[in-house]
Amino acid sequence: MSEQQTEKSPARNVVIVGAGMAGVQSAVALREAGFAGPVTLIGAEPHQPYDRPPLSKAVLLGKAEDSAFDVDFEALDITLRLGLDVTALRAADHLLDTADGPVPYDALIIATGAEPVALPGSEGVPGVHLLCTLDDAARLRPVLERQHDVVVVGAGWIGAEFATAARAAGCAVTVVEAAARPLAGTLPAEVTAPMTAWYAESGAELLTGARVDRVEEGAVVLADGRALPAGAVVVGIGARPATGWLAGSGVALGPDGSVTADSALRTSLPDVYAVGDCASFPSARYGARLLVHHWDNALQGPRTAAASITAAGTGAPLPVHDPVPYFWSEQFGRFVQYAGHHADADTLLWRGDGADPAWSVCWLREGALVAVLAVGRPRDLAQGRRLIESGAALDPEKAADPAVPLKSAAL
Ligand SMILES: Cc1cc2nc3c(=O)[nH]c(=O)nc-3n(C[C@H](O)[C@H](O)[C@H](O)COP(=O)(O)OP(=O)(O)OC[C@H]3O[C@@H](n4cnc5c(N)ncnc54)[C@H](O)[C@@H]3O)c2cc1C
Hints:
The chain is an alpha/beta fold. The protein is built from 7 helices and 26 strands. It has helices at 21-32, 134-145, 157-168, 189-202, 295-311, 378-390, 396-399; strands spanning 14-17, 39-43, 78-82, 86-90, 95-98, 103-104, 107-110, 114-116, 128-129, 150-153, 173-176, 205-207, 212-216, 219-222, 227-229, 232-235, 239-241, 259-260, 272-274, 279-283, 288-291, 326-331, 334-340, 347-351, 359-365, 368-375. The strands form 7 sheets. It has a 5-stranded parallel β-sheet, with helices on one face. α1 (21-32) packs parallel to α5 (295-311). Bound molecules: flavin-adenine dinucleotide.
């Protein structure tokens, strides 16, 4: 018997907290699943719900004004309550606390996403930015337009995408990374080696093994005493589930701060579900609990949560959320895509040469494909994703030949 609660009666009124990708998709998925009861979507941000990936791409460069979701909330009879912070969950009473008073729910979907980790001591220092919200992107656009000297702290996905945009805008860019290489926590050194060269090629300076001691107005001071002049500082050092408001609610959280959902995305509390960047789930496919901070997971999870809610109390089988994780990044003129999870892989195969514009790597475990990273090779990604889904074993020699379609390497 799992620690998760089973539903007792069909839900009548669903409230969703968090109006980002996962919250909006949850509302849409409920309607698509035939749920006809009231659906209320509460979001802290004042803006019409919007998509985040364009914030570090087209929106940042002024090529798009915003990235509002193309969803007709009125036609779907979804009540939007924007600019409203939910401050607490009182599960025993099936109530949420907000500045506008308590909000009752029969079923609740937690979709509060993730918030960026701030650089200690940098909060409140003028010229220091995060890149998570539409407001953040709006504040950063003039930085790019005025071609400030920019220091980016963190050579992760967001740091690389911001550096790309800032270079495209003509800024002088220095990227400071505490680890010995970009994406150190995410990809093996062998795979990040070619990526390291992308920084220099774009004209950005990448300083690795460089720890920030402090940020002052106009400068980033490193632990070795070097002071880097900075018209603006952009911090991209990770994100944590936005679950602080759940303190005292009794909902089970993991050590990473995520709401620990089960495979049907039910939480430890009755009638409470969790989706997107704030929720981890047990992956039978990978034998691990996964916390995925990527767009596709915020698209897939809501379908499971909606199906869980509509199945509750009906005796219908529960859905299972165990997708092959997928994400993409657009950096330094390249389209980088990743599918799978390579933590337990035993073999790494290259398809092509990392010095070339397009290449891929495949991770195998006991002969089966478990993850693929494709740079400018979207077919490898699409085929690899399907092979991972089916658990296909690959002929390693064929898989390592970039001239052979990846699907033809399946045994
Ligand atoms: C700049 C940027 C670029 C990205 N680019 C990519 C990309 O290229 N590819 C990719 O795969 N992924 C990308 N991502 C990740 C992707 O956008 C996220 O995985 C996705 O947005 C997660 O959706 P979510 O709804 O779970 O969370 P969020 O989008 O974070 O939405 C959560 C919402 O909940 C609100 N909220 C939080 N707490 C409360 C509260 N107590 N009360 C009310 N509302 C609350 C927040 O204000 C927020 O609007 C990017 C993310 C960022 C920030």
